[in-house]
């Protein structure tokens, strides 16, 4: 069953068409990837889905309802959570307080009755950053800050979680644990839509992948299908940062798609 539908969405910024008649859907309970070269329109799609960007045309449906004109906070209440490509934590607060604030906002009046800090500790534990609880958010490594963003998003118990380049700054072991956590979350009913440049991560955890290039969806399918799709490889090879493009195309071509 489809939880999110992006239907024929166009976003224009003056003369720039950032999203060009993009149509894709996200199946409930899946980990879905949204990939594409730099400037392909991935973050703009996330902004349209969360309500930060009004599309020039097209529709967004969440759980069967048209939310194209629904306010950002109402979409969050309905269960759409996200993390940002540019980190957005409160730098002067501790890691634990950042999560506490997210929980307080989510729980509102009910939060008054929350017994102790059990939920905060549990969320930090879940994303693997409990040891940083007392540190200021602006003093922790980037990878840890990304996991903090994830903990804050999870505090709102989203049904759909949008992650914008969540693994940048994580080392290999952390990325592996992070991938396992995403699969676990999806299994618990927190559907994941992820923008990510780490192809090994994308290929190993995603059930389905949509590929954007110049704002259009050029391919959709399972990791195995996407990996061998010539259109996808061409898109990455034509990428302005040739070194990285070639690297991504190469990793797409490798036959080491991990079995789920
Ligand atoms: N607010 C804006 N005003 C004008 N142009 C914008 C704006 N936001 C994005 N763009 C342009 O829209 C296009 C898509 O940008 P977007 O940030 O969505 O790409 P992306 O796929 O997330 O790229 P990256 O992988 O680098 O994060 C780019 O050409 C970008 O310069
Ligand atoms: Mg982006």
Walk me through the topology.
Layout: E1 2-13, E2 16-27, E3 31-35, H1 42-50, E4 57-62, E5 65-66, H2 72-78, E6 80-82, H3 95-107, H4 118-127, H5 142-155, E7 160-164, H6 172-187, E8 191-195, H7 199-205, E9 208-213, E10 216-221, H8 223-227, H9 230-237, H10 242-253
Parallel strand pairs: 3-8, 3-9, 6-7, 7-8
Antiparallel strand pairs: 1-2, 1-4, 4-5, 9-10
Helix pairs in contact: 3-4, 3-5, 4-5, 9-10
- What general outline do the C-alpha atoms trace? globular
| Total number of beta strands | 10
Reading the helices and strands in chain order gives: EEEHEEHEHHHEHEHEEHHH
CATH class of the largest domain: Alpha Beta
What do we call the CATH topology of the largest domain?
Rossmann fold
Helix content: 25-40%
Low-confidence stretches: 255-260
Beta-strand fraction estimate:
15-25%
Count of alpha and pi helical runs? 10
Task: Tell me the domain tally.
Answer: 2
> What is the topology, as strand order, of the major beta sheet?
6-7-8-3-9-10
Termini Cα gap: 20 Å
InterPro entries: AAA+_ATPase, ABC_AA/LPS_Transport, ABC_transporter-like_ATP-bd, BCA_ABC_TP_C, P-loop_NTPase
GO molecular function: ATP binding; ATP hydrolysis activity
Organism: Nocardioides pocheonensis
Keywords: ATP-binding, Nucleotide-binding, Transport
Q: Characteristics of this structure?
A:
single chain; 260 residues; alpha/beta; Rossmann fold; 2 domains; 6-stranded mixed sheet; globular; disordered C terminus; binds adenosine-5'-triphosphate; binds magnesium ion
């Amino acid at each position: 069953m489809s939880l999110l539908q992006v239907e024929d969405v166009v976003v224009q910024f003056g003369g720039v068409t950032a999203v060009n008649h993009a149509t894709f859907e996200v199946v409930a309970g899946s980990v879905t990837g949204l990939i594409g070269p730099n400037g392909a329109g991935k973050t703009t799609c996330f902004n349209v889905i969360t309500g930060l960007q009004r599309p020039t045309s097209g529709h967004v449906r969440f759980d069967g309802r048209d939310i194209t004109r629904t306010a950002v906070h109402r979409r969050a209440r309905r269960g759409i959570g996200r993390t940002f490509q540019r980190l957005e934590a409160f730098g002067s607060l501790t890691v634990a307080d950042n999560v506490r604030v997210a929980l307080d906002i989510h729980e509102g009046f009910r939060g008054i009755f929350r017994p102790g800090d059990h939920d905060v500790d549990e969320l930090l534990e879940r994303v693997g950053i409990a040891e940083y609880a007392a540190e200021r958010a602006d003093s922790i490594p980037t990878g840890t800050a990304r996991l903090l963003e994830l903990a804050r998003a999870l505090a709102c118990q989203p049904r759909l979680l949008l992650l914008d380049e969540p693994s940048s700054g994580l080392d290999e072991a952390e990325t592996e644990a992070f991938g396992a956590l995403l699969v676990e979350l999806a299994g618990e009913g927190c559907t994941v839509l992820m923008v990510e440049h780490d192809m090994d991560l994308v290929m190993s955890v995603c059930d389905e992948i949509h590929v954007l290039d110049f704002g259009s969806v050029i391919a959709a399918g399972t990791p195995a299908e996407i990996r061998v799709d010539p259109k996808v490889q061409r898109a990455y090879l034509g990428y302005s940062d040739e070194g990285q493009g070639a690297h991504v195309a190469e990793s797409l071509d490798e036959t080491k798609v991990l079995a789920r």
